[in-house]
């Protein structure tokens, strides 16, 4: 029995030793990275600017996520007015609950009220109020005119 066990273990060890071959590191890792780059600083900068130009004009189907927001799409007064209307319509309370349900009747009612105010004369009234508040605070603290926005 011991001889059979010894022969079996020896056969397995021999099979493992024969199948284990040494593989050069370059074959499974790749060529070593040189310590010094072979591109000059100007070449890297030119490649970066060309790739920015290429990816900035990439078609929408190649982009991931929402489209980039346009800088300055809304003024500070418009953002403040939008926030005030959001709070006044009750959306701040409805949307921040733990049991938030966008399909509930209460949420739809609050959203309709917000959209009505956002697209109605209330929005422009809030924008004018925010602009006048900002103008008064700038004049009070002597920071110039609000037209510099």
TrEMBL record:
Keyword Signal: yes
Keyword Signal: yes
Domain of life: Bacteria
Signal sequence annotation: 1-20
Keywords of the record: Signal
Protein name (record): DUF4148 domain-containing protein
